[in-house]
Design brief:
The complex is a heterodimer.
Chain A: H1 3-9, E1 13-16, E2 27-30, H2 34-40, E3 45-49, H3 54-62, E4 65-70, H4 78-87, E5 91-93, H5 98-107, E6 111-112
Parallel strand pairs in A: 2-3, 2-6, 3-4, 4-5
Antiparallel strand pairs in A: 1-5
Chain B: E1 13-18, H1 23-31, E2 38-44, H2 54-65, H3 70-90, E3 94-100, E4 104-111, H4 119-123, H5 132-136, H6 144-151, E5 154-159, E6 165-172
The chains are: A alpha/beta, B alpha+beta.
The complex binds adenosine-5'-triphosphate and magnesium ion.
Amino acid sequence: MTLQEIVEILEGEVLFAGSGLDVEVPCAFASDLISDILMCTKEPTLLLTGLTNNQVIRLSDMIDIIAVIFVRGKRPLDEITEMAMERGLPLICTDLTMYRSSGLLYGAGLRSCKI
Amino acid sequence: MARAFAAARSDMAEYLHIQSGREQAVRDFIEKPPEADVSLDSPIPEKDFNSAGKGSAEVKNLLKRLGVNPEVLRRVAVSAYEAEINVAAHSQGGEMLSHIYPDMIHVVFNDEGPGIADIEQAMVPGYSTADEMVRELGFGAGLGLPNIKKNADALRIRSEANGKTQLEFLIFFNSDE
Ligand SMILES: Nc1ncnc2c1ncn2[C@@H]1O[C@H](COP(=O)(O)OP(=O)(O)OP(=O)(O)O)[C@@H](O)[C@H]1O
Ligand SMILES: [Mg+2]
């Protein structure tokens, strides 16, 4: 599945497209807990989260995050988006909840990351 | 400088975990700590979540330039980040000292207290004393220390109630998996 397809499924708004939405996304993980995300992400992964602070972007310095989806209408501050731009990390917002977003993507064939 | 895993003061509680299969390598390092090729030092101010994590990112980038394999890089980055955040979140501040050798890294975190009263309890997945401000940022799952234990080849924590905490870990670059 590409990031473009994911944006369509989630009726998402692209805050930053990184190097393009045609990038392949092999799997995803959803959580609002940083340590949980760090523990469960061992391969390139799409992250769904309700967290919008700078540590979410900092996470992508440590582990391989393909893009971040901010769920249930959360929007990061401009300075957070700027941090993502410096890193080439795509950011997408959706009004859907974490549960609904995850269900839709899973149903469309996006597997969960290996934990 | 890199007085690795030096003997603890007897009144300090100590927790030590070595990944199975790494006992000999860790013992060799403790007995004959070599001179580090490169050492990095970064401060970790209390509750400064703008800069928290920068030290770990810096170490990861340096190791990446040195050609360390991506899976080992991930384990170093996750361990260092969890420990760095703990100093920022739970202590009055401290520092991170990274010593890089040709085949391994040794990272030491020293903080100004208040210490960990019961280290065994702190190691239990889900145990957390994180305050509201720290939880709002997405910390406080109580998984940071278990995460370091899982990713590091050796982990040692020394602390006491109302004292300082020292956490150090070793990760070898040649993964044996
Ligand atoms: N440097 C430290 N100084 C004092 N207490 C600490 C320190 N590091 C950890 N602790 C104590 O150990 C507990 C468990 O730490 P751990 O990293 O496992 O979880 P956490 O930091 O609470 O949550 P998470 O890491 O999942 O965000 C902490 O809540 C805190 O009580
Ligand atoms: Mg922690």
